[in-house]
Protein backbone atom coordinates (compact mmCIF):
# COMPACT_ATOMS: atom_id res chain seq x y z
CA UNK A 1 0.00 0.00 0.00
CA UNK A 2 1.18 3.51 -0.75
CA UNK A 3 1.85 5.72 2.24
CA UNK A 4 0.51 9.28 2.24
CA UNK A 5 2.08 11.58 4.82
CA UNK A 6 2.75 15.20 5.65
CA UNK A 7 6.14 16.71 6.36
CA UNK A 8 7.05 20.27 7.24
CA UNK A 9 10.02 21.76 5.45
CA UNK A 10 11.73 22.72 2.23
CA UNK A 11 10.91 20.47 -0.71
CA UNK A 12 14.28 21.16 -2.34
CA UNK A 13 16.03 19.24 0.47
CA UNK A 14 14.10 16.00 0.02
CA UNK A 15 15.86 12.92 -1.29
CA UNK A 16 12.89 11.40 -3.04
CA UNK A 17 12.52 10.06 -6.56
CA UNK A 18 10.51 13.08 -7.71
CA UNK A 19 9.59 16.48 -6.34
CA UNK A 20 6.74 18.39 -7.90
CA UNK A 21 7.20 22.01 -8.89
CA UNK A 22 4.30 24.47 -8.80
CA UNK A 23 5.51 26.02 -12.04
CA UNK A 24 4.32 28.82 -14.27
CA UNK A 25 3.11 28.07 -17.81
CA UNK A 26 6.44 29.03 -19.39
CA UNK A 27 8.30 26.57 -17.12
CA UNK A 28 11.17 29.03 -16.89
CA UNK A 29 11.20 29.62 -13.13
CA UNK A 30 9.57 32.25 -10.95
CA UNK A 31 8.81 33.05 -7.36
CA UNK A 32 7.99 30.81 -4.42
CA UNK A 33 8.69 27.11 -4.62
CA UNK A 34 9.45 27.40 -8.34
CA UNK A 35 12.31 29.81 -7.69
CA UNK A 36 13.62 27.70 -4.82
CA UNK A 37 13.68 24.58 -7.01
CA UNK A 38 15.44 26.33 -9.88
CA UNK A 39 18.04 27.86 -7.53
CA UNK A 40 18.77 24.53 -5.89
CA UNK A 41 18.83 22.56 -9.15
CA UNK A 42 21.19 24.95 -10.95
CA UNK A 43 21.15 26.19 -14.56
CA UNK A 44 20.76 22.76 -16.15
CA UNK A 45 17.12 22.72 -15.09
CA UNK A 46 16.04 25.87 -16.88
CA UNK A 47 18.02 24.77 -19.94
CA UNK A 48 16.02 21.53 -20.10
CA UNK A 49 12.78 23.37 -19.35
CA UNK A 50 13.39 25.65 -22.34
CA UNK A 51 13.11 22.62 -24.61
CA UNK A 52 9.67 21.61 -23.28
CA UNK A 53 7.54 24.28 -24.92
CA UNK A 54 5.74 25.35 -21.75
CA UNK A 55 2.89 23.59 -19.99
CA UNK A 56 -0.88 24.11 -19.86
CA UNK A 57 -2.69 24.64 -16.59
CA UNK A 58 -3.60 21.25 -15.10
CA UNK A 59 -0.89 19.43 -17.08
CA UNK A 60 2.55 18.17 -16.01
CA UNK A 61 5.98 17.65 -17.56
CA UNK A 62 9.08 15.89 -16.23
CA UNK A 63 12.78 16.76 -16.14
CA UNK A 64 15.78 15.41 -14.31
CA UNK A 65 16.73 16.90 -10.92
CA UNK A 66 20.23 18.20 -11.73
CA UNK A 67 21.83 19.34 -8.42
CA UNK A 68 18.77 18.52 -6.34
CA UNK A 69 18.79 15.47 -4.06
CA UNK A 70 15.65 14.37 -5.92
CA UNK A 71 16.15 12.37 -9.12
CA UNK A 72 13.41 14.08 -11.11
CA UNK A 73 11.29 17.21 -11.09
CA UNK A 74 7.67 17.05 -12.23
CA UNK A 75 6.53 20.52 -13.26
CA UNK A 76 2.83 21.18 -13.06
CA UNK A 77 0.92 24.40 -13.56
CA UNK A 78 -1.77 25.01 -10.96
CA UNK A 79 -4.82 27.18 -11.58
CA UNK A 80 -4.88 30.82 -10.52
CA UNK A 81 -7.77 31.31 -8.09
CA UNK A 82 -10.54 33.39 -9.68
CA UNK A 83 -13.26 32.67 -7.12
CA UNK A 84 -13.74 28.94 -7.69
CA UNK A 85 -16.19 28.90 -10.60
CA UNK A 86 -13.58 28.92 -13.38
CA UNK A 87 -12.81 25.20 -13.15
CA UNK A 88 -10.17 25.67 -10.44
CA UNK A 89 -10.95 22.48 -8.44
CA UNK A 90 -10.88 20.27 -11.56
CA UNK A 91 -7.66 21.88 -12.79
CA UNK A 92 -6.00 21.50 -9.40
CA UNK A 93 -7.09 17.84 -9.17
CA UNK A 94 -5.68 17.32 -12.65
CA UNK A 95 -2.28 18.67 -11.51
CA UNK A 96 -2.13 15.99 -8.81
CA UNK A 97 -3.37 13.16 -11.05
CA UNK A 98 -1.08 14.00 -13.99
CA UNK A 99 1.94 14.35 -11.69
CA UNK A 100 1.27 10.99 -10.04
CA UNK A 101 0.76 9.36 -13.43
CA UNK A 102 4.06 10.76 -14.74
CA UNK A 103 5.90 9.43 -11.69
CA UNK A 104 4.45 5.98 -12.31
CA UNK A 105 5.19 6.15 -16.01
CA UNK A 106 8.88 6.79 -15.21
CA UNK A 107 8.92 4.09 -12.51
CA UNK A 108 9.53 6.62 -9.75
CA UNK A 109 8.31 5.34 -6.39
CA UNK A 110 8.44 8.28 -4.01
CA UNK A 111 7.02 11.71 -4.82
CA UNK A 112 6.72 14.94 -2.82
CA UNK A 113 4.22 17.73 -3.54
CA UNK A 114 4.21 21.38 -2.46
CA UNK A 115 0.82 23.01 -1.85
CA UNK A 116 0.15 23.76 -5.51
CA UNK A 117 -1.60 27.12 -6.15
CA UNK A 118 -1.52 28.06 -2.43
CA UNK A 119 1.05 30.83 -2.80
CA UNK A 120 0.91 33.62 -5.35
CA UNK A 121 -1.86 31.81 -7.26
CA UNK A 122 -4.13 32.54 -4.29
CA UNK A 123 -6.11 29.29 -3.90
CA UNK A 124 -7.73 29.19 -0.43
CA UNK A 125 -5.62 26.78 1.58
CA UNK A 126 -8.28 24.63 3.21
CA UNK A 127 -10.04 24.12 -0.14
CA UNK A 128 -6.80 23.35 -1.95
CA UNK A 129 -5.63 20.78 0.58
CA UNK A 130 -9.03 19.05 0.45
CA UNK A 131 -8.64 18.72 -3.32
CA UNK A 132 -5.06 17.50 -2.89
CA UNK A 133 -5.84 14.87 -0.27
CA UNK A 134 -9.01 13.52 -1.90
CA UNK A 135 -7.42 13.36 -5.38
CA UNK A 136 -4.27 11.64 -4.14
CA UNK A 137 -6.25 9.17 -2.01
CA UNK A 138 -8.44 8.24 -4.95
CA UNK A 139 -5.40 7.79 -7.19
CA UNK A 140 -3.61 5.61 -4.63
CA UNK A 141 -6.41 3.07 -4.56
CA UNK A 142 -4.69 1.52 -7.55
CA UNK A 143 -1.05 2.59 -7.90
CA UNK A 144 2.51 1.29 -7.91
CA UNK A 145 3.91 4.18 -5.88
CA UNK A 146 5.52 3.57 -2.47
CA UNK A 147 5.15 6.95 -0.83
CA UNK A 148 3.52 10.33 -1.42
CA UNK A 149 4.64 13.25 0.75
CA UNK A 150 2.71 16.48 1.19
CA UNK A 151 5.24 19.16 2.02
CA UNK A 152 4.06 22.03 4.22
CA UNK A 153 6.28 25.09 4.07
CA UNK A 154 4.57 26.79 7.02
CA UNK A 155 2.42 25.97 10.04
CA UNK A 156 -0.84 27.11 8.44
CA UNK A 157 -0.48 24.62 5.62
CA UNK A 158 0.75 21.92 7.98
CA UNK A 159 -2.38 22.30 10.14
CA UNK A 160 -4.63 22.28 7.06
CA UNK A 161 -3.06 19.05 5.78
CA UNK A 162 -3.35 17.39 9.18
CA UNK A 163 -7.01 18.29 9.34
CA UNK A 164 -7.67 17.07 5.81
CA UNK A 165 -5.90 13.77 6.46
CA UNK A 166 -8.02 13.14 9.55
CA UNK A 167 -11.21 13.50 7.50
P1 LIG B 1 1.69 28.92 -6.78
O1 LIG B 1 2.13 29.89 -7.85
O2 LIG B 1 1.26 27.58 -7.36
O3 LIG B 1 0.72 29.50 -5.82
P2 LIG B 1 3.89 29.27 -4.87
O4 LIG B 1 5.29 28.81 -5.04
O5 LIG B 1 3.64 30.72 -4.77
O6 LIG B 1 3.05 28.56 -6.04
O7 LIG B 1 3.29 28.59 -3.58
C1 LIG B 1 2.95 27.24 -3.50
C2 LIG B 1 3.23 26.72 -2.12
O8 LIG B 1 4.62 26.38 -2.01
C3 LIG B 1 2.96 27.72 -1.00
O9 LIG B 1 2.21 27.06 0.00
C4 LIG B 1 4.34 28.05 -0.47
O10 LIG B 1 4.32 28.29 0.92
C5 LIG B 1 5.09 26.76 -0.76
N1 LIG B 1 6.55 26.84 -0.83
C6 LIG B 1 7.34 27.91 -1.11
N2 LIG B 1 8.64 27.55 -1.09
C7 LIG B 1 8.67 26.22 -0.76
C8 LIG B 1 9.70 25.26 -0.55
N3 LIG B 1 11.00 25.58 -0.68
N4 LIG B 1 9.34 23.99 -0.22
C9 LIG B 1 8.05 23.65 -0.09
N5 LIG B 1 7.03 24.49 -0.28
C10 LIG B 1 7.33 25.77 -0.61
Please, could you describe this protein's structure?
The protein has 167 residues and is α/β, with parallel strands linked by helices. It has one domain (3-166): Leucine Aminopeptidase, subunit E, domain 1 (3-Layer(aba) Sandwich). The protein has 5 helices and 6 strands; from the N terminus they run E-E-H-H-E-E-H-E-H-E-H. It has helices at 32-41, 43-50, 88-105, 125-140, 155-166; strands at residues 3-8, 18-22, 60-64, 72-76, 110-113, 147-152. It has a 6-stranded mixed beta sheet with strand order 1-6-5-2-4-3, with helices on both faces. Helix 4 links the parallel strand 5 and strand 6 (147-152). It is globular. The two termini are 19 Å apart. Bound molecules: adenosine-5'-diphosphate. Adenosine-5'-diphosphate binds next to helix 1.
From the 3D structure, determine the CATH topology: Leucine Aminopeptidase, subunit E, domain 1
Per CATH, the architecture is 3-Layer(aba) Sandwich
CATH domain class name? Alpha Beta
User: pLDDT below 50 for ≥5 consecutive residues: which ranges?
Assistant: none
- Overall mean pLDDT stands at 97
What oligomeric state do the depicted chains represent? single chain
Q: Cofactors and ligands present?
A: adenosine-5'-diphosphate
CATH superfamily: Leucine Aminopeptidase, subunit E, domain 1
